[in-house]
Amino acid sequence: MAVWCRVWEGRRTGLAQYTFCVVTAPATFRGTKKYCRAPPPAPTPAPAPALRRQRQAVTSLVLAVHGPPQSSSGEKLPPATPSPTSTSISRSPICLASSVRNFLLPVSNLIRLTPNDIAFGARPRLSGRRPRPPSPPHHTASYPHHAATMSSDPEREHALDGYKSKLLESREWEAKLKNLRLEIKGLQHDFDVSEDNIKALQSVGQIIGEVLKQLDEERFIVKASSGPRYVVGCRSKVDKAKLKQGTRVALDMTTLTIMRMLPREVDPLVYNMSLEDPGQVSFGGIGGLNEQIRELREVIELPLKNPELFLRVGIKPPKGVLLYGPPGTGKTLLARAVASSLETNFLKVVSSAIVDKYIGESARLIREMFGYAKEHEPCIIFMDEIDAIGGRRFSEGTSADREIQRTLMELLNQLDGFDYLGQTKIIMATNRPDTLDPALLRAGRLDRKIEISLPNEVGRLEIMKIHSQSVVTDGEIDFESIVKMSDGFNGADLRNVVTEAGLFAIKDYRDSINQDDFNKAVRKMAESKKLEGKLDYQKL
């Protein structure tokens, strides 16, 4: 720190005073004697009158409060030689009070001096210059009454409390403001979504077309739904690798640009077939058909679950199976059990619903049905009453017969076009196998024919126990006697026996079925069976 100080030179005979000079030394050397000889300093310009008066007032104030300056050893130092331009200031109380009143407040922001600083001629620092470091702790100790006054000032404590409360309140408002901004952001997002939806409702529709051919990476030949063909471009977001021949696309109303790909067109009748639910049917709920279940699972379930077995052996898996037998023996139930156990897509087709009066519509429906099955693999197609479209072909017939024959030929074409390891299997069922066309029954189309015959005595006993599990019985029921009385019954007849027994119990105002009810139900069903004709089924 640069200070004004006196430089002394010690001699044996005494001390000789020299002139003032400016030295640079830390504060710890203040008040100590420096034995050096220095040349007189260069003349400095006189300070401004206002600054000179402030220095003189501060010098008088510090000397009046602290007394004369002392060295570090305790001896009094001689006063500094006053500047020729300075004037004496009285040390009377009136002058001191006047100095405090006029100069303490503005000067306190400018300088802080001690008697030793005055003795060494320290220059005061103005507020516009570089600030001094914080005051050391000895200043607070020098004025204990000032610290006590600050700690016990009620106005200061009240001001601090008010500041703290306002600060907490400000932080609370900042948190609320942050939450409101987040809410505004969410509402703005909802507003944008709603605006987009409104624009979508107000936007112009698009034309449905079909891709015919790809010319290059950017141009395609498209056939519009109205009939004409166009060479159009494609939107950049559309995957051009998927735009193959026959793909349905949406075209812009103005530029006819391909905007998006559309799913394959599905006939409503085929879509309704896919909604058919096979239900929760298990093979354990089918009685008397253990051998038929094994053969069916070998043809349908094994190729879908373990196709590598056929590749390892080197054989081709069967494409489909034909279930034939008397009505009510469980052909449809077997197909439902297979679809339910595999958890695959299931298409239940009623063959008579395929036949249409318009030429070519039945064949188109067959194509769409197999196309839908290939797109939603694994899939099982169950065609019940296949004799409606698969009958023998004759050279003579009406136009309706010729339409059925065209439908059969389309079905044969689809069966030949199957992939051997594909995930699409077909199950056909009929109770008139003798009327089917030989081309449909040949190997390579329907590879396995399974006869679903009437159940024997053991099978009827299993069926009776299955259907009687959920009914309330009164005592033990002798099912063996009931089975002996139900010779020639199929599975549907045995289920009807349990239903009739429950009706007899309801007529007698009872909540349970007894043995007598079952006996009455069997006799009633035997009488109704006499009205049914018998069909002789030969193995295919």
UniProtKB/TrEMBL annotation:
<dbReference type="Pfam" id="PF00004">
    <property type="entry name" value="AAA"/>
</dbReference>
<dbReference type="GO" id="GO:0043161">
    <property type="term" value="P:proteasome-mediated ubiquitin-dependent protein catabolic process"/>
</dbReference>
<feature type="domain" description="AAA+ ATPase">
    <location>
        <begin position="317"/>
        <end position="456"/>
    </location>
</feature>
<dbReference type="Pfam" id="PF16450">
    <property type="entry name" value="Prot_ATP_ID_OB_C"/>
</dbReference>
<dbReference type="InterPro" id="IPR032501">
    <property type="entry name" value="Prot_ATP_ID_OB_2nd"/>
</dbReference>
<dbReference type="GO" id="GO:0031625">
    <property type="term" value="F:ubiquitin protein ligase binding"/>
</dbReference>
<feature type="region of interest" description="Disordered">
    <location>
        <begin position="122"/>
        <end position="157"/>
    </location>
</feature>
<feature type="region of interest" description="Disordered">
    <location>
        <begin position="66"/>
        <end position="91"/>
    </location>
</feature>
<dbReference type="InterPro" id="IPR027417">
    <property type="entry name" value="P-loop_NTPase"/>
</dbReference>
<dbReference type="GO" id="GO:0008540">
    <property type="term" value="C:proteasome regulatory particle, base subcomplex"/>
</dbReference>
<keyword id="KW-0547">Nucleotide-binding</keyword>
<dbReference type="InterPro" id="IPR003593">
    <property type="entry name" value="AAA+_ATPase"/>
</dbReference>
<dbReference type="GO" id="GO:0019904">
    <property type="term" value="F:protein domain specific binding"/>
</dbReference>
<dbReference type="GO" id="GO:0006289">
    <property type="term" value="P:nucleotide-excision repair"/>
</dbReference>
<dbReference type="GO" id="GO:0005737">
    <property type="term" value="C:cytoplasm"/>
</dbReference>
<dbReference type="GO" id="GO:0005524">
    <property type="term" value="F:ATP binding"/>
</dbReference>
<feature type="coiled-coil region">
    <location>
        <begin position="163"/>
        <end position="197"/>
    </location>
</feature>
<dbReference type="GO" id="GO:0036503">
    <property type="term" value="P:ERAD pathway"/>
</dbReference>
<dbReference type="InterPro" id="IPR003960">
    <property type="entry name" value="ATPase_AAA_CS"/>
</dbReference>
<keyword id="KW-0963">Cytoplasm</keyword>
<dbReference type="GO" id="GO:0005634">
    <property type="term" value="C:nucleus"/>
</dbReference>
<dbReference type="GO" id="GO:0070682">
    <property type="term" value="P:proteasome regulatory particle assembly"/>
</dbReference>
<comment type="similarity">
    <text>Belongs to the AAA ATPase family.</text>
</comment>
<dbReference type="InterPro" id="IPR050221">
    <property type="entry name" value="26S_Proteasome_ATPase"/>
</dbReference>
<dbReference type="GO" id="GO:0032968">
    <property type="term" value="P:positive regulation of transcription elongation by RNA polymerase II"/>
</dbReference>
<keyword id="KW-0067">ATP-binding</keyword>
<dbReference type="InterPro" id="IPR041569">
    <property type="entry name" value="AAA_lid_3"/>
</dbReference>
<keyword id="KW-0647">Proteasome</keyword>
<dbReference type="GO" id="GO:0045899">
    <property type="term" value="P:positive regulation of RNA polymerase II transcription preinitiation complex assembly"/>
</dbReference>
<dbReference type="InterPro" id="IPR003959">
    <property type="entry name" value="ATPase_AAA_core"/>
</dbReference>
<protein>
    <recommendedName>
        <fullName>AAA+ ATPase domain-containing protein</fullName>
    </recommendedName>
</protein>
<keyword id="KW-0539">Nucleus</keyword>
<dbReference type="GO" id="GO:0016887">
    <property type="term" value="F:ATP hydrolysis activity"/>
</dbReference>
<dbReference type="InterPro" id="IPR012340">
    <property type="entry name" value="NA-bd_OB-fold"/>
</dbReference>
<keyword id="KW-0175">Coiled coil</keyword>
<dbReference type="Pfam" id="PF17862">
    <property type="entry name" value="AAA_lid_3"/>
</dbReference>
